[in-house]
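Q: what sequence does this backbone want?
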């Protein structure tokens, strides 16, 4: 196993590709857990604020809408819409990174595979059987596999966080609609 890993890492392009994908994977998990926890907390506050609004008719101080409309001279639908868009923009920060990783990681892995296969074919001058070239091609395919391994959680996490942003936006819109309807 260690000998096979050293063969894969003998090519500097593989080191770059696998290193790049490793950094991507680290940041994918970091962004996901950070945003998931912060969005969950934010949604909980907005849900509590909506309940307080339904009970008392006043927007709670924990709501991001309350802080936003307090800064405005005139409170109307447009003011609320601007506050909701600002909150949505803040909430979706980092989610775009996940979609970028999900779409680029397989291509980065594929690049490593192409370079590995080119290297394998260039060494074919001395090789006469497929049994001698197949291990090199198999080693080259590792980069594509790693690219896919990075892309799948990035895409999944992007979808989960996008849904959280939608949930947050729904609570903000409900607060706006109830506040303006009274």
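A:
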């Amino acid at each position: 196993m260690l000998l096979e890993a050293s063969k894969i890492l003998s090519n500097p392009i593989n080191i770059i590709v696998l290193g790049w994908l490793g950094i991507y994977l680290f940041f994918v998990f970091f962004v996901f857990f950070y945003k998931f926890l912060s969005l969950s907390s934010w949604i909980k506050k907005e849900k509590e604020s909506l309940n307080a609004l339904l009970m008392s008719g006043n927007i709670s101080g924990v709501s991001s809408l309350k802080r936003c409309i307090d800064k405005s001279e005139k409170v109307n639908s447009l003011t609320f819409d601007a506050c909701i868009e600002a909150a949505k923009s803040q909430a979706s920060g980092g989610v775009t990174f996940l979609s970028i990783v999900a779409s680029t990681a397989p291509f980065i892995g594929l690049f490593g595979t192409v370079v590995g296969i080119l290297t394998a074919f260039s060494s074919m001058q001395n090789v006469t059987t497929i049994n001698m070239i197949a291990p090199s091609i198999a080693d080259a395919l590792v980069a594509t596999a790693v690219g896919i391994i990075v892309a799948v959680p990035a895409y999944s996490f992007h979808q989960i966080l996008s849904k959280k942003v939608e949930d947050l936006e729904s609570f903000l819109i409900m607060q706006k609609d109830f506040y303006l309807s009274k």
